């Protein structure tokens, strides 16, 4: 089975969590042609937010994404169209660390009046899958890397770097998940 590991960055504010306020500012993704990998293709694009176009200092500190990165980026509709095109028509399972990324896609698709492709609902939450595969409490990506002895590569909280690190983690346990029949079946 083919896997698309995605990690999104979004506008954010320190100690502020208001559902629906955050907007995607980066889509990072890595394709694995099988559960063992290796990574075959990557997608990395910034997105220009529309509701609150100015990034908070906190957001830039957290993600390292600068105002000029998003000012020169395309809007969500265009980048998401390119992402769906990049994903392609062959069956795949979307993977991300937690439930956040799939939900953020739903939020931004709704904001821009774009239907979320039904194939995106075939999703593995790698955070919960990692916890059950390794018999540990559910934890963040950085902790999971430490636990497994994998080095964190790139800049934490950059979508493409997070996606690469999450893909490295996924390759450790997706094969056993697949062998146990625990990956979601194609929706008919
Ligand atoms: P991550 O994939 O962990 O880099 O997080 C994805 C997005 O979640 C970030 O781009 C932020 O919008 C938000 N986020 C992550 N950590 C925090 C935090 N400590 N405070 C506020 N928002 C956060
Ligand atoms: Mg991230």
Describe the structure.
- This protein is 39% helix and 19% strand.
- The protein has 188 residues and is of the alpha/beta class.
- The chain contains seven helices and six strands; from the N terminus they run E-E-E-H-H-E-H-E-H-E-H-H-H.
- The mean pLDDT is 97.
- A six-stranded mixed sheet has the order 4-3-2-1-5-6.
- The longest helix has 21 residues, at 159-179.
- Bound molecules: adenosine monophosphate and magnesium ion.
- Magnesium ion is lined by residues 7, 9, 157, 159, 162.
- Adenosine monophosphate binds next to strand 1 and helix 1.
| Low-confidence segments | none
Report the helical percentage.
Answer: 25-40%
The radius of gyration computed from the alpha-carbon positions, rounded to a whole number of angstroms, is 16 Å
Bound molecules: adenosine monophosphate, magnesium ion
Strands side by side in the biggest sheet: 4-3-2-1-5-6
Order of helices and strands: EEEHHEHEHEHHH
Total beta strand runs: 6
How many helical stretches?
Answer: 7
Structural class: alpha/beta
Roughly what fraction of the amino acids lie in strands?
15-25%
Could you tell me the mean pLDDT? 97
Main sheet, how many strands, which sense, barrel? 6 strands, mixed
Q: N-to-C terminal Cα separation, in Å?
A: 17 Å
């Amino acid at each position: 089975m083919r896997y698309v590991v995605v990690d999104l960055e979004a506008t954010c504010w320190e100690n502020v969590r208001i559902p629906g306020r955050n907007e995607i500012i980066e889509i990072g993704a890595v394709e694995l042609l099988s559960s063992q990998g290796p990574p075959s293709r990557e997608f990395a694009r910034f997105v220009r937010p529309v509701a609150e176009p100015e990034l908070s200092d906190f957001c830039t500190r957290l993600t390292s994404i600068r105002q000029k990165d998003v000012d020169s980026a395309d809007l969500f509709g265009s980048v998401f169209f390119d992402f769906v095109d990049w994903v392609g028509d062959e069956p795949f399972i979307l993977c991300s660390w937690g439930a956040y990324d799939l939900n953020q896609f739903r939020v931004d698709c709704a904001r821009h009046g774009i239907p979320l492709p039904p194939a995106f609902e075939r999703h593995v939450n790698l955070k919960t899958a990692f916890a059950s595969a390794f018999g540990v409490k559910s934890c963040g990506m950085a902790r999971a890397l430490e636990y497994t002895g994998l080095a964190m590569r790139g800049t934490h909280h950059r979508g493409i770097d997070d996606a690469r690190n999450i893909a490295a983690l996924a390759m450790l346990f997706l094969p056993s998940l697949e062998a146990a029949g625990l990956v979601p079946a194609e929706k008919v």
